[in-house]
């Protein structure tokens, strides 16, 4: 099976051929995948060199002319390093682009901490109006890329697509909006984000919990979470492949009118200062199936008795 990133260039190349309004902006990383597209569309495949601030600025300039720019590099160089340009050139100017990252939280451990970005989604959360897709399989990545690049009639949406080497065994029918119900139970709700689904399903095997699958995390599907808690109870565990707790505020807001508990699991804040392998980082952050099972079970086993919540308020 190919990886999400290996799927990225062929999909976007086809879209370049199909739609003269699509452009690609690169900063050296990923250029080889667009070599043929660059020959066919030299005016719409732009490589700015190792200049990440210019990467975003160029994409914003293309957007101001009515183009739909697809901007790509590693997550740490796409969101963190040029964050001021993301905030001003795209956000303040109110133009859209599709930011497509690679390397995720720790996909290339040998690159060191400079190439890791577990805080990318949390950082984008400080800005308004971003859609965030976190596919868990290459087929889902293709679906969400097509959705993102064609988003909005005026193609002015701001979208972040987070690609990862980590992948689930099979793809699900994602639509760029809703959480999917993968398993139903009555003892709690576990939300698995993107490539965390397989580990969550293994971790919760035999546990009486509902499992929701999230590949579009912003906007957060509050309705799906509320519906799941009506049958499964209001103990909620979020399992995210980036900074732990990134979506706890969104979950708390979704359940603001009822007593509830939320546990956010994800990449921890302490820096792991040895390169290691991806699997070792997953285990060190407690995101492997055995660790998740213990953390989820311990959380559910410490439920406290509360008075009945009574009827829920209808959300505005």
UniProtKB/TrEMBL annotation:
<dbReference type="InterPro" id="IPR009014">
    <property type="entry name" value="Transketo_C/PFOR_II"/>
</dbReference>
<feature type="domain" description="Transketolase-like pyrimidine-binding">
    <location>
        <begin position="2"/>
        <end position="171"/>
    </location>
</feature>
<dbReference type="Pfam" id="PF02779">
    <property type="entry name" value="Transket_pyr"/>
</dbReference>
<dbReference type="InterPro" id="IPR005475">
    <property type="entry name" value="Transketolase-like_Pyr-bd"/>
</dbReference>
<dbReference type="InterPro" id="IPR029061">
    <property type="entry name" value="THDP-binding"/>
</dbReference>
<dbReference type="InterPro" id="IPR051157">
    <property type="entry name" value="PDH/Transketolase"/>
</dbReference>
<protein>
    <submittedName>
        <fullName>Transketolase</fullName>
    </submittedName>
</protein>
């Amino acid at each position: 099976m190919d990886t999400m990133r290996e799927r990225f260039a062929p999909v976007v190349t086809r879209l370049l051929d199909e739609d003269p309004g699509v452009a690609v902006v690169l900063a050296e990383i990923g250029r080889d995948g667009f070599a043929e597209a660059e020959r066919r569309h030299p005016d719409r495949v732009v490589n700015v060199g190792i200049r990440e601030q210019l990467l975003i600025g160029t994409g914003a300039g293309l957007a101001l002319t009515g183009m739909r720019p697809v901007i790509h590099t590693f997550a740490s160089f796409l969101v963190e390093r040029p964050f001021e340009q993301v905030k001003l050139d795209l956000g303040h100017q109110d133009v859209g682009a599709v930011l497509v990252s690679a390397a995720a939280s720790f996909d290339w451990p040998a690159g060191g901490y400079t190439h890791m970005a577990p805080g990318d989604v949390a950082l984008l959360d400080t800005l308004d109006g971003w859609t965030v897709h976190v596919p868990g399989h290459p087929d889902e990545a293709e679906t969400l890329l097509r959705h993102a690049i064609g988003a909005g009639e005026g193609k002015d949406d701001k979208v972040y697509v987070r690609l990862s080497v980590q992948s689930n065994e099979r793809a699900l029918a994602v639509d760029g909006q809703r959480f999917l119900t993968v398993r139903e139970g009555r003892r709690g709700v576990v939300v698995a984000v993107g490539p965390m689904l397989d580990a969550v399903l293994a971790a919760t095997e035999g546990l009486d919990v509902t499992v929701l699958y999230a590949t579009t995390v912003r906007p957060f599907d509050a309705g799906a979470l509320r519906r799941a808690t009506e049958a499964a109870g209001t103990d909620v565990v979020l399992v995210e492949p980036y900074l732990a707790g990134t979506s706890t505020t969104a979950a708390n807001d979704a359940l603001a009118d009822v007593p509830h508990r939320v546990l956010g699991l994800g990449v921890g804040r302490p820096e792991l200062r040895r390169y290691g392998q991806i699997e070792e980082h997953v285990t060190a952050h407690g995101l492997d199936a055995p660790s998740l099972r213990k953390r989820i079970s311990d959380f559910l086993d410490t439920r406290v008795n509360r008075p009945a919540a009574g009827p829920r308020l209808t959300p505005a």
